Amino acid sequence: MNKLAGAEVATDYTITFGDAVIDDKVTLNATIVNGETTGIEDIMATASVKVTGLEAGKYTVATFDANTHTPGNTWDSEAPSFALLNAAGEVVALGNSDGKNFYALGDLTLDTNNEFKADNGGVLKDVAAVMTTATGLKDGDTIEIKADGGINVSTQEAADKAITIINDAIETVSAERSMLGAMQNRLEHTIANLGTSAENLQAAESRIRDLDMAAEIMEFTKSNILNQAATAMLAQANMAPQTVLQLLG
Predict the structure, then answer these.
(1) For a 10 Å CB count at each end of the chain, is N or C smaller?
(2) In sequence order, which residues have a C-beta less than 8 Å from that of residue 184 and are 6 or more positions away?
(3) Is 220 inside a domain boundary?
(4) Domain range for 119
(5) CA nearest 58: which of 27, 86, 88?
(6) Is 238 contained in some domain?
(7) Which run of H or of E encompasses 49?
């Protein structure tokens, strides 16, 4: 594919975007693509069309049909008219500016106003004439899409969009920083608790290591002797009343 507005294509089908605004989507100035066995024709439009969910990377051409886009004719897109496969082998969604997918629109009809209309109500507007043909592209070929991430401020609309994207990015970063701050606070609290537990454990270990076993054994023996003496004295005290009772009996 070549002569795409804002894009240059090498013979290995590498598309390098120039001043396209990137916001997790790749913005193309092509509304639709129609394939033939020897190449694909790209129909250009004045309105940008987004390839939704398509990040920079290598994609494989899955399939495209060979119907001719002429006013009044119907483009049967029950099978994808032009589909790309990602690295996982999944068909990526090629959508218009309203987020509709080309391959999910059903039958498309090009009317005299150069608008594609789908049988499910989808419309692709501002379709111009066929511009060029990229020969040699066929099913199974790999194309690589690269985006330099530049910002287009040549028009008020593009500048407003760039500002919106930047503001969204700032809000996203702020939200992430807030989440990271909360996580950091929880981690610091946990670390402080672990530090206190470690200090208590070290103090207990120190007391155990510093214990004087001889003194402790002597204290234990003393307590044991006193306990036995108290038991013997109590036994003697209990025997005196019993002796008196025996004499009286």
Answers:
(1) C
(2) none
(3) no
(4) 7-150
(5) 86
(6) no
(7) strand 39-51
